[in-house]
Design goal:
The protein is an alpha+beta fold. About 30% of the residues lie in helices and about 20% in strands. Strand 1 and strand 2 (about 115) form a beta hairpin. The protein binds the ligand Nc1nc2c(c(=O)[nH]1)N[C@H]1C(S)=C(S)[C@@H](COP(=O)(O)O)O[C@H]1N2 and molybdenum atom (MO).
């Protein structure tokens, strides 16, 4: 026969077990809920398949960086002697087809109104040379030497009102590679329509006859073999943006 004291202890032990069990169950339920929420956030993606939280941060990045962007801020330049002779070739999207000998730069003034320009038209502008540290988003960089015309000079002559638009869109002649770039970066004094590397004609795998050099951006925006340039207030399509990268890709 139990005395009253023992009974008390047994009941307390029982209560304790019950409480631990409840606490543990709540913990498990909470953990399941947390995992569910985490998965939900992580699996929400945009058109590019980029997780929503990441895309939100990338877009905030663009707002912050473009608000402090200034065309007075020049990328560091180097003496020609520091430029590498063996320039890395990185990416050949849009360069695979044979280059058409009748290449023209298609400058879209308005939909349905396109100027066809030759290399002679482009070489009429004063030549700018630039030696700077070219940075690829994959993590490598190289001091390289380029020559061409300032995009701002070019635009002033051929399509001055275009500078009112928010973006420029550039693409290869076959439309396989394409980029969208904010107008402030396009008009930056170091942005050039480039036709020379190391003082010589641009090699085919580096974008002959004409490529973009834009030191305020990562390499992904330096489109090689420009076929078409157009302007728009909406973001033009962008190859690497569609594959999850930052649209702005500024430095
Ligand atoms: N047409 C075209 N342009 C392109 C690319 C590409 O694949 N196709 N790759 C870009 C990337 S990711 C980089 S880093 C630079 C590399 O330029 P380079 O090959 O002259 O070093 O070109 C950019 N322009
Ligand atoms: Mo790159």
């Amino acid at each position: 026969m139990m005395n009253d004291d023992t009974k008390d202890i047994i009941i307390t032990k029982h209560n304790f077990r019950k409480k631990s069990f409840l606490a543990f169950s709540f913990f498990i339920l909470f953990a399941i809920f947390a995992i569910f929420v985490w998965k939900k956030i992580n699996h929400a993606t945009d058109v590019a398949g980029t997780p929503k939280p990441l895309r939100t941060i990338l877009d905030k990045n663009e707002k912050i960086f473009s608000s402090i962007f200034s065309d007075q801020h020049l990328s560091k330049t180097y003496p020609v002697s520091e430029a590498v002779k063996k320039v890395r070739v990185n990416g050949d999207i849009g360069l695979k087809s044979d280059l058409d000998t009748s290449w023209r730069l298609h400058l879209v003034l308005h939909p349905g109104d396109t100027l066809l320009l030759t290399m002679d038209d482009i070489k009429k502008f004063p030549k700018t040379e630039l030696v700077y540290d070219f940075k690829c988003i994959e993590g490598w960089s190289q001091i390289t030497h380029w020559g061409g015309v300032k995009f701002s000079d070019f635009l002033k002559k051929y399509d001055p009102s275009a500078s009112q638009e928010k973006y420029a869109g550039l693409s290869t002649p076959d439309n396989e590679y394409y980029v969208g770039i904010d107008m402030a970066s396009m008009l930056h004094p170091q942005t050039i329509l480039c036709y020379e590397m190391n003082g010589k004609q641009l090699p085919v795998n580096q974008g002959y006859p004409l490529r973009l050099i834009i030191p305020v951006k990562y390499g992904i925006k330096h489109l090689k073999r420009i076929g078409t340039i157009f302007f728009s207030n909406e973001r033009p399509p962008d190859y690497w943006y569609e594959r999850g990268y930052d649209y702005y890709s500024g430095l």
